[in-house]
């Protein structure tokens, strides 16, 4: 169970990309063979790149001068062998290529991760970026040079042969690639006179019209263009920006710098990965585990009008945040979702919106609830009812109402109801490790969330009796279905930081900027931010995510009960993993050793605090924040007394 969390930053390798756009030759500069160099060799072979190994800087330079490699990977971990940075500088100064980029790669000798790194370098944004710089450099050369210029392809076939004044294009064979390629580095780096800036500008314009690429590449292009006309400090700052943009995990925090807390580690590992990524190659274990089957029959439908008074009474304050869902769970004999659903859906006029008879809604709620597993200690229908409750509560907040349309509200209530249907009480990582049918069906990607969404629609549309969508107009159904699916998939924790960060950047920050101005003109602008379709999607995702993991914001007693249930479910998973010889995904959740207070503290620190700060800034939730603070202090106090249990022992 190693996540890059524990890797020290000082163990880094220096990757120097020196690129013409050709078949890749890779030079490894490693004083000694070790797991890391072996993995890179293997990765090169697998990727079909040619690979040389050099043991000393001298050998490296000699080899480089001969082969003119496209990628040099230098071992930067042991300064006693050689000075990688000096070697880097030397390569820069002698490089006959059009552009040089350096990157760092943190030590990781997992073969697949080396392979992925190479492939990413080869195909990723970096290559586009390099191409772009190359093009720019070539245009500069074209306009400055009095000489003929030839640009050769990867097979050393000349693509363009041009005289500055004649601009003739011919295609001939060329034997020596190095002679054919040109050193324009020196001309570009010196070209800072006024004319050159204007010229480069037109070069950039040409490059823009040449490339059809991903949005991120467009962004990089724009920044590149801005750099051209910026003073040095700005250009350098933009270099930093580009460096960050080139990483693929744009919305993930840099795990490498997080504290090394095993609870956080396990939660991140258990909730945010698919289990496969954390194992190398062959450790992936194929086993067959039968998932629970859909229960065959339903109990006879009850009538909404004769909800027993004792149940009606427990639901009286369902619009309050402090509503006690566990009372309802016992009063309804474990059918809280059906009853709470009837009440909340009718409060929001869902049947009217869907043009569906109440009897259909009733049957639908019953069959959905029946497909939650009562045997799960956490992910049973009480959790679904709880998330439905939180969703309904959030939907009544002023800002949320301003942002969402009726169809969004209906989608949110439906999504909350079905969001964990048929949950097996095991995490995605477990299902992937166990080679479960679901993991295979969904290619180890968002396995559970995909299943919840797909099954919900299957159950609903299979039988007219419970098909709440059957009277909907086709286009409206498509819109609603899309919104429900999007929200259910948003509950997947691998995307946690992506959703939260997008919300903060697209909604919190612009709204805060408007509020600072405090002008009347802004009311309209604020409305626009709130109701833009792309922002409504972000609001809905954030809403269901917060509802899904709002346990730490509930009143203390409820919070403690939930903590007990989730811990028990994780313990059961660890038990089963041990029993079946599967990798233990979250070792801290071992019933013999686990500190529940510590696990709650880590969960709150890592996932909850920032998210609810953002959600509170948007929706204004003082009571939730008060509970959160209170609960956090409770867990801290238990932890300070070195207690591992849910509650202090009786006096
Ligand atoms: C959910 O699990 C708990 C055990 O943690 C159990 O007491 C409760 O009855 C279950 N609820 C439902 C609706 O199955
Ligand atoms: C899983 O991967 C296969 C092969 O790439 C693909 O054909 C299939 O559509 C994928 N299934 C899902 C559910 O993504
Ligand atoms: C705030 O007000 C200033 C001056 O009135 C204006 O230039 C600026 O665009 C406003 N900011 C936003 C975010 O609207």
TrEMBL record:
Residues forming the catalytic site = 379 (proton donor)
Q: Which residues form the signal peptide?
A: 1-31
The UniProt regions of compositional bias labelled Basic residues, in chain numbering, are 162-178
Residues reported to bind Zn(2+) 2: 420
Question: What does the cofactor field's note say?
Answer: Binds 2 divalent metal cations per subunit. Site 1 may preferentially bind zinc ions, while site 2 has a preference for magnesium and/or manganese ions.
Enumerate composition-biased segments (Polar residues).
184-197
Per UniProt, AMP binds at 379-383, 420, 548, 600
InterPro entries linked to this entry? HD/PDEase_dom, PDE8-like_REC_N, PDEase, PDEase_catalytic_dom, PDEase_catalytic_dom_sf, PDEase_CS
PROSITE patterns given for it?
PDEASE_I_1 (PS00126), PDEASE_I_2 (PS51845)
Q: Per the database entry, which stretches of residues form a coiled coil?
A: none
Q: Where does Zn(2+) 1 bind?
A: 383, 419-420, 548
List every stretch annotated Disordered.
Answer: 162-203
Enzyme class comes to: hydrolase
Biological process GO annotation list? signal transduction
Which residue ranges does the record assign to the PDEase domain?
303-642
Q: Which E.C. number(s) belong to this protein? A: 3.1.4.-
Please list the GO terms describing molecular function.
3',5'-cyclic-AMP phosphodiesterase activity; metal ion binding
Q: In which pathway does it act?
A: Purine metabolism; 3',5'-cyclic AMP degradation; AMP from 3',5'-cyclic AMP: step 1/1
Instruction: Quote any Pfam family the record assigns.
Output: PDEase_I
What cofactor does its activity depend on? a divalent metal cation
Please report which protein family the annotation says this sequence is part of.
Belongs to the cyclic nucleotide phosphodiesterase family. PDE8 subfamily.
- What is the protein's name according to its record? Phosphodiesterase
Q: What is the lineage of its organism?
A: Eukaryota, Metazoa, Chordata, Craniata, Vertebrata
